[in-house]
Amino acid sequence: MSSSIKFSLILFCACSLFIQETLAGEVICENLPENLCSFAIASSGVRCVLENYKNEDGNLGYTCKSSEVVVERFAGHIETDECVSACGVDRGFVGISSDAFLAPEFTSSLCSQACYQNCPNIVDLYFDLAAGEGVFLPTLCERQKSSPHRAMLELLSSSGGSGDAAPAPVSD
User: Fold this and answer.
1) Closest Cα partner for 28 from 18, 37, 17?
2) Alpha-carbon distance values, 123 to 48, 96, 106, 120 (Å)
3) Comparing C-alpha atoms, which of 44, 109, 110, 123 is closest to residue 77?
4) CA 5, CA 164: separation in Å to the nearest integer?
5) How far is residue 51's CA from residue 66's CA, in Å, rounded to a whole number?
6) Span between the terminal Cα atoms of the chain, in Å
7) Sign of CA dihedral 23, 24, 30, 34
8) pLDDT of residue 44
9) How far apart are CA 78 and CA 60, in angstroms?
10) pLDDT tens, residue by residue, 36-94
11) I want to staple 129 with a disulfide (CB 3.0 to 4.6 A). Which of 71, 98, 101, 104 is the partner?
12) Residue 4 confidence class, pLDDT cut points 50, 70, 90
């Protein structure tokens, strides 16, 4: 093989790697548009959060910021529209709260097979939020399927958690 062919092959491989890296890009919360911010995770592993502010004209504006919550196993992930829809979440929410669990429709969507089995990033986020309220998400989902009203009552009384700990589901 001639040296010019070897050089061309090496140059082609190097350019291919550069193009792949450029196309894949690094996810930086502050560079994301507001319609992709919520449920995204920066390449550094921190969750992105949508925040509001008042601009110079006094109007409400939105910006994407890095939170202090680190989730390395999903680093560089921007949630799909399919998961946002299946899980019943809204990219327009400012901040994320466990108050969403109080809406039976939300819990039903989050616990649905379409969300719970296919959207590990969103499930992981709400798993952690539920745990912060003393609720074990898999138990809440089991109870929600058999008796939605009872599940909500248990959640409201914070007795829905079993005290057990287990990792949230993660897809391959």
Assistant:
1) 37
2) 16, 13, 12, 5
3) 44
4) 62
5) 10
6) 42
7) positive
8) 96
9) 24
10) 999 999 999 999 999 999 988 999 999 999 999 999 899 999 999 999 999 999 998 88
11) 98
12) low
Contact at 8 Å (CB) between 122 and 110?
Answer: yes
Q: Which amino acid is at 139?
A: T
- CA-to-CA distance for 7 and 76, rounded, in angstroms? 33
CB distance 143 to 154 below 8 Å: yes
Say what the pLDDT of residue 144 is: 83
Look-up of token digits 């986020």: 125
Which residue type sits at 150? R
For residue 7, what pLDDT band results from cuts at 50, 70 and 90?
very low
Strands, sheet with 46-54, edge to edge from the N-terminal-most edge strand: 60-70, 46-54, 40-41, 77-78
Whether the CB-CB separation of 133 and 82 falls below 8 Å is answered with no
Give the residue among 95, 94, 91 at the shortest CA–CA distance from 35: 91
Confidence at 127, pLDDT banded by 50, 70, 90:
very high
Which residue in the block uniquely carries the two structure tokens 């006094």? 58
Q: Count Cβ neighbours within 10 Å for each residue of 76-111 and write b for 16 or more, e otherwise.
A: ebebeeebbebbbbeeeeeebeeebbeeeebbbbbb
Q: How far is CA 26 from the centre of its chain?
A: 17
